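Q: For a teaching session next week I want to show students how multiple molecules come together into a single three-dimensional assembly. I've collected the sequence lines for a complex. Could you give me the predicted C-alpha cells for the whole thing so I can convert them for display?
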Amino acid sequence: MEPKGLFEPITITLPDWVAGIVDPEASYADDLARMRLAVALSDANIERATGGPFGAVVFNAETGRVVGVGVNMVVPARNAVLHAEIVAFMTAQQRIDSYTLANGPHELYTSCEPCAMCLGATLWSGVRRVVWAATRDDASRLAFDEGPVFAASHEYLRARGIRLEQGPLRAEARAILERYGTSGGAIYNA
Amino acid sequence: MEPKGLFEPITITLPDWVAGIVDPEASYADDLARMRLAVALSDANIERATGGPFGAVVFNAETGRVVGVGVNMVVPARNAVLHAEIVAFMTAQQRIDSYTLANGPHELYTSCEPCAMCLGATLWSGVRRVVWAATRDDASRLAFDEGPVFAASHEYLRARGIRLEQGPLRAEARAILERYGTSGGAIYNA
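A: Of course. Below is the structure for the complete assembly, covering every listed component.
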C-alpha cells in the first residue's frame, strides 16, 4: 500500500455504535447517570473491539446534555493521541464551534483517571470539572502507564479553578479494565 | 448556523502553504537544518495568520526525511488539542500507518519546549528524542502557560529512554514568539 501523503488531512470518526448508546436529546440527571454513560462507552468499546477500555463524555452540567463524546481509538485509528478524553474534547469543541469550553458549565466524565497528556489537555480545554471512575492505580495494575502525573500536577489544575474528583462506579470501571486485560487486549503504553 | 452533530467526523487539515515550505523528498542533514524547518513553520504560521507561533516536525533521524509535520491550529480549527507537536505526531502516525513511531529512529523538532499535554503525548508517540528551540521561560514571558511540567516530568520521560534537549535557534524562535505577542496574537492559554 502506498503510504499516505505528508499533507493529507486526518479524519477522526467515532465508531458507528456510539450513536446507539449516547442520546443527544436526553438530560443525564446527575453524576451517577453521567458516569454510567462514560463507563458504558468503555465497556462497549472493548465488546465491539474498536479500541482500548476507556470512554469519556463532556456534559453541560446545567442541562445534563451531552456536548462531546469519546472512546479510546489509538490502535484502530493508528493515532496515539486519541485517548477517550482527547476525542471527547475535540467533539465537544467542534459541536460548540469554539476552541474553548470555558464559555459554559462544561464537565468531563471519564471512565479512568486522566493520564499526563489528557490532564494537560484538560487545562487547555476549558472544562471546569473532571470526574473519573477507575483510578490511576487501577490502570497501573493493568500496566497502563499514566505518564508523569504528580500530586503537584493536580494541584496545578486546581489552582486554576478546575475541580478534579474521583466519582461513582469505580468498581465497575475497574472490572472492565480487568476484563480487557484478561482477554488479551493490547496494552499499547506498556 | 446549525451546530455540528455530536457524531460528525473531525477533519484536521494543514494550511495549504505548508506544502510550499516542507520538502517531502529532501534529506534534512542535521539538527540545525531540521530545527530551521520547525522554526520556519512557526514563522509562516503567524505570517499567514493560520494559528499560534509554533511549528513541529517529526524526522527520521537516519534518512533526514520528514515523517510528520505540524503547526499550531487551535484557534482556526476550534480545537484546543491541536498544538504543533500533536499535529506532527498525528500526521507522522498516519503516514507510517501505525499508532507508534517506535518502529524507527523518529525524533521531534519543535520551535518551543513542549507543554504538559505535548510532553505526555511524546511519551505515547514512540519518538526517541525531542529537540526544542525556544524554552518554557521564553513562552511564559509571553504568557503562554506550559501547564504542569516539572523537572520530574522530564526525568520520567528520560527514564524511559527519551532524550529531551534544548537545541539550536533559540533566539530566532523567541523573536517569533515576541513578534506574535506584539502583533496582538491571541494568547489563548493565558
